[in-house]
C-alpha cells in the first residue's frame, strides 16, 4: 500500500519533548475518548482488577478513570513534564524512583499504587521490568511511532501482553501524500501483518 512520503519520516525524542514544552499537544484530549467508552466492555471482557497498559501515554485522562474502577494502570511516556502534569492535574500524590534496569529512566507511582508511569523510551521496556498486561489501550501510540520502528514496536507490545489479553487500537485514516504525520497513516493490512 502507498504510505506516501511517510515511510522514511523520523520524529526525534527532542521533537516530542519540544511539543510538550511548547504546549503543542493537540493529540492530548481533556475528555475520555468516546471509542474507549464505547468499547470498554470489549477491553475489560467481564474481568476486574486488570493490568492495563498505556503505551506513549502522555497525560491521558483515561488512566485515572480506569484506575478508579479498580484496575492497575501502567504507562510509558518520554516526557517527564507530561507525567508530572498527569499527577498534578488529577491532584494525585505520587513518588518518583529510578528504574535500575534503564539508565536515566524514572518511574512515577501514585501513592495509592494503582498508577505507575515510566518515563523513558518505550523501547527500553521489557516484560521483565513492567510485567505482562491483560489489556492495552493504544489511542495514539502506533500512529505516533516512526514508520521504520513499527515492527519493533509491535514485537514489544506482543511480548508485553498475556495470552488472553485485549488490545484496543485507534488509528487514523487519511491520504498520506497530503500529510507528513504524525499521526501516521497505518493501513489495515499493515496492522494485520504487524499483529497477526
From TrEMBL:
Catalytically driven reaction(s): S-adenosyl-L-methionine + a thiopurine = S-adenosyl-L-homocysteine + a thiopurine S-methylether
Main location: cytoplasm
GO cellular component terms, A-Z: cytoplasm
Assigned EC number: 2.1.1.67
Example GO molecular function: thiopurine S-methyltransferase activity
Biological process, per Gene Ontology: methylation
Taxonomic superkingdom: Eukaryota
Top class in the EC scheme: transferase
Subcellular locations according to the entry: Cytoplasm
Keywords: Cytoplasm, Methyltransferase, S-adenosyl-L-methionine, Transferase
Binding site for S-adenosyl-L-methionine: 16-27, 56, 77, 121-122, 139
Sections of the chain in a coiled coil: none
Protein family membership: Belongs to the class I-like SAM-binding methyltransferase superfamily. TPMT family.
Name the UniProt record assigns to this protein: thiopurine S-methyltransferase
Annotated organism of origin: Thryothorus ludovicianus (Carolina wren)
Amino acid at each position: 500500500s502507498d504510505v506516501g512520503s511517510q515511510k522514511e519520516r523520523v520524529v526525534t525524542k527532542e521533537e516530542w519533548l519540544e511539543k510538550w514544552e511548547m504546549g503543542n499537544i493537540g493529540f492530548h484530549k481533556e475528555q475520555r475518548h468516546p471509542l474507549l467508552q464505547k468499547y470498554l466492555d470489549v477491553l475489560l471482557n467481564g474481568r476486574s482488577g486488570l493490568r492495563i497498559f498505556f503505551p506513549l501515554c502522555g497525560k491521558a485522562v483515561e488512566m485515572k478513570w480506569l484506575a478508579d474502577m479498580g484496575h492497575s494502570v501502567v504507562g510509558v511516556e518520554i516526557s517527564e513534564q507530561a507525567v508530572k502534569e498527569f499527577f498534578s492535574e488529577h491532584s494525585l500524590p505520587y513518588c518518583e524512583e529510578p528504574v535500575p534496569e534503564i539508565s536515566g529512566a524514572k518511574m512515577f507511582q501514585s501513592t495509592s499504587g494503582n498508577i505507575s508511569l515510566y518515563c523513558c523510551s518505550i523501547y527500553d521496556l521489557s516484560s521483565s521490568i513492567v510485567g505482562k498486561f491483560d489489556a492495552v489501550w493504544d489511542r495514539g501510540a502506533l500512529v505516533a511511532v516512526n514508520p521504520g520502528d513499527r515492527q519493533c514496536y509491535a514485537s514489544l507490545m506482543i511480548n508485553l501482553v498475556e495470552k488472553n489479553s485485549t488490545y484496543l487500537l485507534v488509528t487514523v485514516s487519511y491520504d498520506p501524500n497530503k500529510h507528513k504525520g504524525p499521526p501516521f497513516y497505518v493501513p489495515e493490512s499493515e496492522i494485520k501483518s504487524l499483529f497477526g
